[in-house]
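Re: duplicated header lines in exported structure tokens

Our pipeline writes sequence and tokens for each protein into one text file. With two proteins the header for the second block appears twice in some exports. Here is an export where it did not happen, for reference. First protein block:
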Amino acid sequence: MELWNLRYFVAVAEELHFGRAATRLHMSQPPLSRAVKRLEADVGALLLVRSPAGVTLTPAGEVLLDEARTLLDHADRVRSRVSAAAGAATLSVGILGDGTDPGVARLAAAYRRAHPGIDIRIRDTDLTDPTCGLRAGLVDVALTRAPFDETALTVRTLRSDPVGVVLRADDPLARRDRLRLAELRDRRWFQFPQGTDPLWQSYWNGGRPREGPVVRGVQECQQAVLWNGTVGVAPLGHDLPAELAVVPLTDMAPSRVVAAWNEGDANPLIRSFVETATAAYRH
């Protein structure tokens, strides 16, 4: 059995859907389906039951999923140890400046357990660069939020968060259960500096041009709301000062937490980081 076939099978078994697994693996469905059929031929057993609703695992598939995870984890550890022996045991990670996401803590703990010999160097960035220094060659992989220009990058979605509008706690709209973007059309929205990725700016402005103060970091965004009554947008579930409130937006697309790296970069440390991140953010 080839390791790449096992990785394909694990993706399908975890997603229970060929389409979602193909998206996760950045490939089309037909070769993924063929790879799983080859694996079934190799082991001599039916692993998956396919239906219009998705996929279910057979008893043989359940066993293989458990064994494949163990085998792939061991293979990743082997790569990491070989890289360490070769003196290439450093991975630089860019993280968007938002330390309140519990997924980051879970990822750090899981990666330390799996790769204790790897030296992780963190570059904390502000909101003006959603690639966290990736395009500038400052980091190997970015843990950030989409959307942004993905040209020449590989991007994997780890989680999608609903978002809300951040208001002063004494704002009349803060008492609402939910809001629509149209109800905020006359408000001032924070802006990023000129030259910031336009896809990124547009998302945090609700998809249309806005006017408002220029900010660079999360704290500046919060202060702009507090001092000027500026409208901010933030993922739901994040801690905010008591003076601020967040009201869910019903017509704004979720904010995607993603891992991003340079297209074609075959560094095995990046691959192991992304796989660990995928598992950490699933819980």
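Second protein block, exported in the same file:
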Amino acid sequence: MSPDDPVRRQMCVRPGAVVSLVLRPRSDGKRWTALRSSAPAFVQPSGWHLEADGAARAVLRCAGTRGGTADITALAKEPDLAGAGGVAFTLQVNVVPHTTAG
């Protein structure tokens, strides 16, 4: 794994969960630029904003009734370059419904 490879993490949540995501300031000089969901029907990011120190915050709202998986990707780039930047962090969120007896 090279230093330029994106960081990948995984978590499981119940339907209807609301998760606060905080990305610390980057040490490589790049700045967080955007947050995206591969499946907004399962996990929808909202409230994205950057702090003065370079940290980024967002709220992840998970589907209320059904299960599924979404990759939440955070993009980062050099501050003086145009464009959205490249993927620097990926969080795989698995929305897992409650099991039913039977």
